[in-house]
Amino acid sequence: MTETRIHRADKQQNGDAMAETSTVDDVFDDTYREKEGKKPPRILVWRNIILMGLLHIGALYGLVLIPSASWLTLGWTAVCYMISALGVTAGAHRLWSHRSYKASVPLRVFLALGNSMAFQNDIYEWARDHRVHHKYSETDADPHNAKRGFFFSHIGWLLVRKHPDVIEKGQKLELGDLRADRVVMFQRRNYKLSVVLLCFLVPTLVPWYFWGESLAVAYFVPGLLRYTVVLNASWLVNSAAHMWGNRPYDKTINPRENPLVAISAIGEGFHNYHHTFPFDYATSEFGCKINITTAFINLMCVLGLANDRKRVSRDTIAARIQRTGDSSYKSG
User: Fold this and answer.
1) Measuring CA to CA, which residue among 125, 145, 127 is closest to residue 89?
2) Which is nearest to 274 in space by CA: 332, 232, 328, 320?
3) For residue 33, which of 130, 131, 143, 136 has the smallest C-alpha distance?
4) How far apart are the first and last CA of the chain?
5) Dist CA 46 CA 26 (whole Å)
């Protein structure tokens, strides 16, 4: 049984879990076939290779400077990490890619700012590529196809030109919901400026101006080191969480449950569940457990800034475990 057919069956069993605004663009398409013959040549993007190399060298220097940083600066680094991570997890991923809950304008603005602080492409491009990833997971049309190895799915996909199928399939997606969101499109139009301000200047200038931290420490610790760690935490979802862990919900797909990735990516490591039920706002059966992003969305709902969280019924989950799980399931 294919993932597409299983998803359709689950939708019939649990209609309340799928809102009218949910998209089939994040459901695996089993009709896609990779083209036969020789694969297209791998074209290196030297600008990205050089910039990523310099970034990681700067992050290593940031590690050296940690003992020189004040406690206020270390605390500010943690705050910047959390804001930028939420901009990806609660924002670009769960809100805009999967439409798994609804957010008010103030919350969408906050998440867009956090997304710019994370500097992982603008929301529109991030969501488009992520929907392609789900729809054509681990095929030539997947931007970070894990079948091409750990390095490629972790960072290598950013260092080469996209496979033609990735571009072709991305152009065919229905992205009207993203184009209709004024916050998304404003960020897209002003993305470069927002990245300079929020990813680099704000993390650096706040500790320098308000408590006299040296510019070097302020730039390399809450700036480059924080940015690089957030990047790698996000990339681990594409690499490690597609390779290591159990598959209690669907053993026919590669995404895994990986608690270590969930910790670093504030809740995004329950990947076998997420690829089985991509419309679930919690990306996990177990709610807030090792899942800061879910706790954040819940808090936003309490504050009246978010609503309409999509969830999968326990009966649907149990039926799926029995039907396609790898027998490793443990409740709680």
Assistant:
1) 127
2) 320
3) 136
4) 27
5) 31
For every one of its 332 residues, what pLDDT tens digit does the chain have, with 9 covering 90 and above? 333 334 433 433 333 333 333 456 778 888 888 888 888 999 999 999 999 999 999 999 999 999 999 999 999 999 999 999 999 999 999 999 999 999 999 999 999 999 999 999 999 999 999 999 999 999 999 999 999 999 999 999 999 999 999 999 999 999 999 999 999 999 999 999 999 999 999 999 999 999 999 999 999 999 999 999 999 999 999 999 999 999 999 999 999 999 999 999 999 999 999 999 999 999 999 999 999 999 999 999 999 999 999 999 999 999 999 999 999 998 86
Distance, in Å, from the CA atom of 101 to the CA atom of 285, rounded to the nearest integer, reads 16
The residue written with tokens 């190895």 in the block is 149
Chain mean position to CA 10: 24
State both tokens at 24. Answer: 């089939």
State how far the alpha carbon of 173 is from the alpha carbons of 2, 46, 105, 136, 145, in Å: 21, 29, 25, 12, 18
Could you tell me whether strands 306-307 and 102-103 are parallel, antiparallel, or unpaired per DSSP bridges?
antiparallel
d(CA 205, CA 214): 10
Cα(185)–Cα(310) distance, integer angstroms: 25
291 phi-psi bin (left φ>0, alpha ψ -120 to 50, beta other): beta
- Give the Cα separation of 125 and 131 in Å (integer): 10
Residue 69 CB contacts under 8 Å (≥ 6 apart), including other chains: 77, 213, 217, 221
The encoded tokens of residue 261 equal 């990735």
Q: Supply the pTM of this predicted model.
A: 0.91
Residue spans of alpha helices (H) in the chain: 3-13, 46-65, 71-86, 105-118, 123-135, 150-154, 164-172, 176-179, 182-189, 191-195, 202-211, 215-218, 226-238, 259-264, 271-276, 292-302, 314-324
